[in-house]
């Protein structure tokens, strides 16, 4: 099934991105990373995140872990949004702690390192594969029918029973 046809509820997105539900909720309410499949509309409704949303959540978490300010992360996420998230998995995001840079070629990474300042990078392709692996173990939801899709966890008998009951 194509990744565009699957959505992930908040707890699943948190588990795959390595964040708390409180962070997820705050980032959604403040517009940092909003669910692109289905936003929450009042209490009791479930947000539904796309695969790319979960990748961005994990990128945000990695930036926070390295000390990049939330303001600079917001700028980077806005840049990714405007760019359309295309070719995300081929990108390296670099930061000197104050600014986030997008590098799409080894030459760009090299040029940034020539400045002599300390930088760190996030190879988005690695994050992409990490999220892919994590989500394959967790439950997704078909966007069109709402059917729960069971991850590759053979021990989850309860989810299999729920699907049969529907």
Task: Name its key features.
alpha+beta, 3-stranded antiparallel β-sheet, 4-stranded antiparallel β-sheet, 166 residues, 7 helices, 46% helix
Question: Describe it for me?
Answer:
The protein has 166 residues and is of the alpha+beta class. The protein is 46% helix and 14% strand. Helix 1 packs across helix 3 (51-65), helix 1 (10-17) crosses helix 6 and helix 3 packs across helix 6. The longest helix has 15 residues, at 51-65. The protein is elongated. Residues 16-79 form the HTH merR-type domain. It comes from Streptomyces prasinosporus. Pfam families: MerR_1. This is MerR family transcriptional regulator. Keywords: DNA-binding.
What percent of residues are in strands? Answer: 5-15%
Q: Give the overall average pLDDT.
A: 84
The sequence of SSEs as H and E is EHHEHHEEHEHEEH
- The unreliable regions are none
Structural class: alpha+beta
**Largest sheet properties:** 4 strands, antiparallel
Task: State the total count of DSSP E strands.
Answer: 7
* Strands in their spatial order, largest beta sheet: 2-1-6-7
The protein's oligomeric status is single chain
**Helix segment count?**
7
Spatial separation of the terminal alpha carbons: 20 Å
Question: How much helix is in the residues?
Answer: 40-55%
The radius of gyration computed from the alpha-carbon positions, rounded to a whole number of angstroms, is 17 Å
Overall geometric form:
elongated
Organism: Streptomyces prasinosporus
InterPro entries: DNA-bd_dom_put_sf, MerR-type_HTH_dom, MerR_fam
Protein name: MerR family transcriptional regulator
Keywords: DNA-binding
